Amino acid sequence: MNVEYFSEGLECLMYCGRKLSPEQRILIENSLIVLLQENRFSGMYFWGRITAIKNDYYIAFGYTNDCLKDRKYFYSIDQYQWQLLPFVQSPKIFQATVLAPDPFFGDPSLQTYVKLDPTFNIVANQVISISSPEVIKLKEEERLAAIVFIISEESAICPRGALYKMVDGRVIPNQMFRGLNDLQIENISYYQLYRLPRNDLKTNLSKRSDYNYAIDFLDTIDGVIPLNQAFTLNMQRNERIAIIKSCVWLGMTFFHKLNSRKHGFVYLGDGRKNFDLLFMY
Amino acid sequence: MEDVGSQHNYSTPTSSTIQSDAPPNTISKKENKLISNKRSEYDDSAKCSNIITTTTTSSSTSISIGAFNSDAQFQRASGHEPPHIGYELSVAKSVLQQYSTLTGDNLFDHLSDIIKRVVDERPPNVIDFFEEFSRNVREQKFHVPERFPPNAVFADSRMFRPAKKILHSIKLPHNVEGADFTIHEEASEEAFTYAEGDLRIDIDYNMRLFVTFNERVEQLQFFWNQCGFTISKDDIFQLASSINRLQTHPSIMQCRFWGCINGLKASYYIVEALLTREELTSRMTMMEEELREKQLPFKMRKNQDPTPLPTHIGPELTPGVYGWENYAPEELEKMTTKARPVPLAEETEFYDIPPEFVGLGCNRFSYFVVNCLFDDWIELPIVTPRQIVVSRQIKKFFTGDLESDIVSYPCFPGKEKHYLRAIIARITASTHIAPQGYYRRMTKKEKDLFEGLNIDDEEEEEEEDFNEGEEDAIQDNDVMLLKNERFELEPLTTLATPVAWVHCRPNILKQGRVVWYDEEKARREREKTLAMYLKMRLLEEMDEEAEEEEADGEEEGEEEELLEGLNQPEIGPDILTSCASDMNPDCLIPWLVRFTSKYTNQKERVLVMQSNLWPGAFTFIFENTCESIYLGWGHKFCKRNIPFQHVPMVHEEFPHTGDDFIETTDPTVEEEMAYNEWLLSKQKMRTTGDSLHEYDGEDIEDYDDNDEEDD
């Protein structure tokens, strides 16, 4: 959620049941503005909170040139001192993060050991061998970085038209964005995933007849698997605000105000994936 | 010009950059000329018509210019005038003003619209979003301010309907006169309506003693807001007024906001209410009857309606014997099958553990839910132990529709409202906590007063007492707690550990009840009553005296006593046990402790306890206010995924042996006719005759098998 309209955004996101206490809100808002200034970011966003046992992690991100490619994530325990989250590349770490059974503890330097799932060697429908499960050493800071990356990849949303691809390939917030209108706001295909597109450009464009190269390059959320089950859309406050909640990452909430450029998402949860989703409908 | 160019062929963005690098206007002008020459050849006729037609755009000057341009072009065609700047300009304009054959727009109007809007509105960084901006302008061409009050159809605004509903629900004075009672007025009013005897008034007054719920939602909202979990500000006022509406209902003694459970399409706002005693007793009598009926053994229930005769009676022939038609019908009837009889589905008796009565155990409180705060409250049904047990094995999203089905394995007995009720019961039992000493148990006198025993017949009271004496240890858990008047708040830092907190709602046993129900005993009782019943029927039939019966009854009683020692009641943690002893193998740290403010507001900070087991359950304490609330999805914590029960293996088919099927020649038409006649005659005999054979069902199946084989 953009720091520009921090408290307003929080008010709108209250439909998930949680928000920040006044002290947290004031500390975070102001320290993020300072962070924005120090790093010369062109945009600063509050990402959310991951509940941990001892201390909660607060996450924010900012960018200078491109709001999809060079996002820099920060975390904070005390809500005013922000540290840069490490960049995780190893796929094993991601695997371990998703599988980690214990909740976050609240100490970034903590090391835990996570047992990965065994791998099965299958030839012609017969299990030939089972490798013993690998044990991965996981530092909580890396785990945090990985989970933040995964959650924002899978469930961060923006309305169609909010992001704009420039001719040189950079993606920036669309200044001309005036919000979705009456007819569009309840349609789930007008919301896009806030990440670098994974689908082919042609597939994304061919989804709609009125496509626009600069806007429709992103993946829309109506194509997220499981289809029609990954997100729920509700209209709130006299049907003026669209609230989208992720069912895969419970705690991820997105809001968009009708006919206004205000939109944003926040994750307030414990960083656990809902593995049971397919059985829950 | 360059931007327009890039707009038209977006796919080649390099062209625009090249043009911008080049010296201004010379090249582009040449290009334009070329284009114009080419186009003038193609569109000569179109251009001529354009001069006459009027434009709809905001630029009013275009008509005259167009006329002027056409003149200029004609002049050029004659080739007398030397080139000069005015002429070039007019040529350029005329190029710009060429009308699209598809849409009828022209570039000149569009550009002038864009320029007008940029100058008027001054949007930031237009150059970066020029394509988007230009698209917008074109889209809104017919929404220009000059056309402002749209004289077309006026569409209902999206906000209109909810707004009207809200207004309607508030019941403003011109609709219904003053429906705005506070609970106090209501109570006193109620007292007056009953005011025949002084006793009644006393009781109602006394019942005020037992109000432990904090009804003031808006006051609580302040604390929730401080703690960082809440429903939205607009909703809270509506919630307060709609709770008020609920409270004024005569059958509700007190209620509080329980929380909110998210659903896929809508979320549930839930209110917990304690019904008045009158309501409870009236419901109780209804429920008792129903339950008694349910606990009766099947045979006693069913015997009234006799089992219907099968519609078709199969042959009594033994499979494996050829030439049945040669036998006489008398002989045929005596024959028995050689093959094993096909097993039939046995009717097993299955008894649910009975639910707790309204006003006791899990059903002590009633719950009211609503999807939109301006709708009427809907009461949830009572919860049965089976629903609680099954709800522990499944995990579902709520849809927001109370009547929708729960598709799950094991099959959930009920609709979504039952599931919701079961989840509420479980959450309440495990997450309602308070500091030690905040609540106290009722004294004996208060208990009697609460249950309204002192005014009832004395006999009843004695009975109750006797019962309690029997199972004192078990009954103990199912109590209503009162606020401790002498509670003194310790400093919050000492409360910041789960040790200092206790559960203030009774634990639900694995059985799904608060008070343990002895299934074994119930089974034995059922058997006894069934035996008695059967004996009674026998006796009735045989017209004998009932002396033996009594003797039998005594014997059974002895057996019972012997068995009772073996049957241990299930024990769970007591009410008011410490939260520190919460046990769950998955969730090692069940409670999180947080202060709302660490650095700034030390004096007025609030202590929050968050449940890890039920994410979304919070309890806060500030001075003398301690409240629990749930705001979440209604899912219990699970380590990775919930261990769903597997569907059982498919049962094996009945093993057929060679004897079961034999090959025969198809019967002729005559034979079939004869057989049918024989069947009919037999059927007639049956219906007029008396009892049924036991083998009927099997025979039919045998016959069917044979049929299939023949096919």
Automatic annotation (TrEMBL), chain A:
One of its GO terms (cellular component) is kinocilium. This is Radial spoke head protein 9 homolog. InterPro entries: RSP9. The lineage of its organism: Eukaryota, Metazoa, Ecdysozoa, Arthropoda, Hexapoda. It comes from Drosophila hydei. Its main location: other. Belongs to the flagellar radial spoke RSP9 family. The keyword Amino-acid biosynthesis does not apply. Keywords: Cell projection, Cilium, Cilium biogenesis/degradation, Cytoplasm, Cytoskeleton, Flagellum. It is found in: Cell projection, Kinocilium; Cytoplasm, Cytoskeleton, Flagellum axoneme. GO terms for biological process: axoneme assembly; cilium movement involved in cell motility; motile cilium assembly. The gene is LOC111595200. The keyword Cytoplasm applies. It comes from the Eukaryota.
From TrEMBL, chain B:
It comes from the Eukaryota. Residues 1-27 have a biased composition (Polar residues). The keyword Cytoplasm applies. Its main location: cytoplasm. It is found in: Cytoplasm, Cytoskeleton, Cilium axoneme. Keywords: Cell projection, Cilium, Cytoplasm, Cytoskeleton. The keyword Cytoplasm applies. GO terms for cellular component: radial spoke. Residues 1-28, 543-562, 690-711 are annotated as: Disordered. Pfam families: Radial_spoke. Residues 696-711 have a biased composition (Acidic residues). InterPro entries: Radial_spoke (IPR006802). One of its GO terms (biological process) is axoneme assembly. Signal peptide: none annotated. PANTHER family: RADIAL SPOKE HEAD 6 HOMOLOG A, RADIAL SPOKEHEAD-RELATED. This is Radial spoke head protein 4 homolog A. It comes from Drosophila hydei.
